[in-house]
């Protein structure tokens, strides 16, 4: 770790070199960190090395042992288990975070099994696009975006301080939320918009697409994101998404009533 608590980490391990993990690796390297990669896919590791996102990598969690910061960027359904496994290999005082878009179940699971010497704080960068894998990773994807940290009463202040330094160095914007509040907010501003994009895409007749313009393209862009990823998100944050749908359906019903009144 750097010379002061909360200084930018010298060495980081990124576990999962997909779109977000790869983008973090590229951004951390550009900011001066030595980045180690972990991914079971040899092609992802090779591409990450070729693009300069990592200095070395492995298919297992061995690289996390020497890292000041470990970022878990695996698919959502594996984040908690991988984070716990990584924490058991990390050195005392190192900081652990993740990028999962659902926080309450992840934070609860990790905190319950966290070794005392490892400092964990849940995280979620509000960044992404419909791209997939290391090939679509881009450090610019993160700049200017919010990075939500979800500390609890059990979170070490040093973990938050280190992540504040990372977030600032990467040109992101820090937001602090309770894990449950995070899931409620993100259901409204991220998970619901994806479902609306998907529904709109399915509602447009094929022959109508021939005259579609930028508005249609932008509003249906999210529907092209990986379905498997979104299925996991919807399962994990089901109740908050249903509440967001209730709010939207009420607004849509109001729009319908206005249109009917104009008849």
What is the spatial order of strands in the main beta sheet?
A: 3-2-1-4-5-6
Distance between the termini: 67 Å
Question: Which percent band covers the strand fraction?
Answer: 5-15%
CATH topology of the largest domain: Rossmann fold
CATH superfamily of the largest domain: NAD(P)-binding Rossmann-like Domain
* Quaternary organisation: single chain
Can you give the helix content as a percent range?
40-55%
- How many domain regions? 2
Number of strands: 9
CATH class term of the largest domain: Alpha Beta
Main beta sheet? 6 strands, parallel
Q: Architecture of the largest domain in CATH?
A: 3-Layer(aba) Sandwich
- Low-pLDDT segments, ≥5 res: none
- What is the N-to-C succession of helices and strands? EHEHEEHEHEEEHEHHHH
Give the overall form. globular
Notable traits:
Rossmann fold; 46% helix; alpha/beta; single chain; 3-stranded mixed sheet; 6-phosphogluconate dehydrogenase C-terminal fold; 263 residues
């Amino acid at each position: 770790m750097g010379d002061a608590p909360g200084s930018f980490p010298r060495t980081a391990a990124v576990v999962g070199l997909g779109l977000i993990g790869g983008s973090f690796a590229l951004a951390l390297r550009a900011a001066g960190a030595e980045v180690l990669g972990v991914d079971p896919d040899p092609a992802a590791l090779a591409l990450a090395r070729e693009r300069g996102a990592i200095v070395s990598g492995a298919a297992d969690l061995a690289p996390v042992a020497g890292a000041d910061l470990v970022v878990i960027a695996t698919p959502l359904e594996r984040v908690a288990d991988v984070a716990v496994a990584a924490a058991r290999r990390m050195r005392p005082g190192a900081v652990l975070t993740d990028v999962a878009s659902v926080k309450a179940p992840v934070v609860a699971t990790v905190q319950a099994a966290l070794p005392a010497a490892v400092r964990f704080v849940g995280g979620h960068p509000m960044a992404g696009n419909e791209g997939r894998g290391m090939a679509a990773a881009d450090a610019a994807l993160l700049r200017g975006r919010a990075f939500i940290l979800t500390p609890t009463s059990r979170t070490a202040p040093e973990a938050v301080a280190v992540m504040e330094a990372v977030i600032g160095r990467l040109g992101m914007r820090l937001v602090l939320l309770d894990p449950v509040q995070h899931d409620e907010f993100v259901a409204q501003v991220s998970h619901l918009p994806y479902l609306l994009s998907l529904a709109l895409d399915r509602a447009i007749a094929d022959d109508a697409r021939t005259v579609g313009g930028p508005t249609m393209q932008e509003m249906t862009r999210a529907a092209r994101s990986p379905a498997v990823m979104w299925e996991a998100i919807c399962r994990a944050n089901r109740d908050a998404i249903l509440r967001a749908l209730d709010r939207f359906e009420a607004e849509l019903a109001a729009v319908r009533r206005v249109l009917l009144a104009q008849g």
